[in-house]
């Protein structure tokens, strides 16, 4: 009997690739959605291509027909299936870029989720599907408006980007379908999480990649945006375990996953560069602030306003108490350990 079937969108991304690995190890049959691209976009899952339990299909969240076709294929191939786990991880996931392509961001991140939920219903799978929606700490946005100093499932939202607004629609449509159609649908409100598979234009990876280029002599500087914004950053490997646990519960619910520790971008730069012998100090103010190596006086870190968002999010700090109590989930990786892995990888 087929009891371990899963469909992952965004399988070629950081979280999708780690989740696919985790579920293949648990003997799931894994269906994955990949987008057609003129450039190779499957590097993160190349090492599992030959696994007989991995099945890849082309599609896009903006195309509801392809979602219906794939779900129908799964249903027809596994007629004795008692449960189908679905992880919707696909998205236009870069906050800054969402200001430049807001319409596509809405189509993929908001309406894509709606199309997915409707595809599940159209295929008659609403009673056996367990749906995980990749939500985000960007829902909180201007977190300080609530008066909270740490953000939980009950903190009011105030998104500050087209990405955050689109994800807010997804969050509420998932709750609506859960309550309206008795669907097993969960929102995972995940705070920042990275690792060696993190996209190159996300700040923590940009720092370690830039450090690697400086160490190898390929460049003489790292250029960044707002170094005073603060984030709660964990390890993607830890977080995908939490996603899986959400769909193993008796009842669907929404959960924050976070480390409960916050660092500024300034601090992340200092920690990463210290691992390669740089003692970063700062001089100047605002856009003219420069980070230099105290040991040599060498100027290394520069600020450029093009990396600032039109509407900034100053801080995000998550409270994962509910996940700990109900899911038994806790992060296993400190920011120091995470940066160490990334620096080792990116400075080769």
Q: What features would you describe in this structure?
A:
This protein is 36% helix and 19% strand. It has 348 residues and is α/β, with parallel strands linked by helices. It is globular, with a radius of gyration of 21 Å. It has helices at residues 14-25, 64-77, 95-98, 102-122, 162-181, 203-215, 236-246, 265-274, 321-327, 335-346, and strands at 5-9, 29-34, 54-58, 84-88, 129-136, 184-190, 193-194, 222-224, 230-231, 234-235, 255-257, 263-264, 280-283, 290-293, 299-303, 315-316. The protein has a seven-stranded parallel beta sheet with strand order 3-2-1-4-5-6-11, with helices on both faces. A four-stranded mixed beta sheet has the order 8-15-14-13. The protein starts with a strand and ends with a helix. It is built from ten helices and 16 strands. The mean pLDDT is 95.
Oligomer: single chain
Give the number of DSSP strands: 16
Q: How many angstroms does the end-to-end distance come to?
A: 46 Å
Helix content: 25-40%
Q: Quote the beta fraction.
A: 15-25%
Largest sheet: 7 strands, parallel
In short:
This protein is an alpha/beta fold. It is 36% helix and 19% strand.
């Amino acid at each position: 009997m087929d009891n371990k079937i899963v469909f992952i969108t965004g399988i070629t991304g950081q979280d999708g690739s780690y989740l696919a690995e985790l579920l293949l190890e648990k003997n799931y049959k894994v269906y994955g959605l990949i987008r057609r691209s003129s450039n190779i976009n499957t590097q993160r899952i190349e090492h599992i291509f030959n696994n007989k339990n991995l099945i890849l299909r082309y599609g896009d969240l903006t195309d509801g027909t392809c979602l219906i076709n794939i779900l129908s294929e799964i249903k027809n191939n596994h007629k004795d299936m008692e449960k189908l786990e679905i992880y919707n991880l696909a998205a236009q996931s870069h906050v800054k870029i969402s200001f430049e392509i807001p319409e596509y961001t809405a189509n993929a991140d908001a309406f894509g989720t709606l199309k997915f939920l409707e595809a599940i219903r159209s295929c008659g799978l609403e009673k056996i599907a367990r749906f995980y929606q990749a939500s985000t700490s960007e829902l909180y946005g201007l977190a300080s408006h609530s008066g909270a100093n740490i953000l939980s499932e009950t903190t009011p939202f105030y998104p500050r980007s087209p990405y955050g607004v689109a994800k807010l629609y997804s969050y509420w449509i998932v709750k609506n379908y859960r309550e309206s159609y008795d669907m097993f649908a969960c929102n995972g409100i995940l705070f920042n999480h990275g690792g060696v598979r993190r996209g190159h234009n996300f700040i923590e990876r940009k720092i370690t990649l830039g450090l690697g280029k400086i160490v190898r002599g390929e460049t003489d500087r790292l250029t960044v945006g707002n170094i005073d914004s603060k984030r709660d950053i964990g390890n993607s490997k830890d977080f995908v375990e939490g996603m899986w646990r959400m769909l193993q519960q008796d009842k669907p619910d929404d959960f924050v996953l976070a480390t409960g520790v916050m660092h500024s971008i300034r601090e992340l730069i200092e920690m990463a560069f210290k691992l390669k012998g740089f003692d970063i100090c700062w001089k100047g103010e605002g856009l003219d602030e420069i980070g230099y190596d105290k040991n040599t006086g060498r100027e290394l870190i520069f600020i450029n306003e093009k990396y600032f968002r039109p509407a900034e999010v100053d801080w995000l700090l998550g409270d994962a108490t509910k996940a700990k109590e109900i899911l038994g989930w806790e992060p296993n990786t400190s920011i120091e350990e995470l940066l160490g892995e990334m620096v080792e990888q990116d400075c080769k």
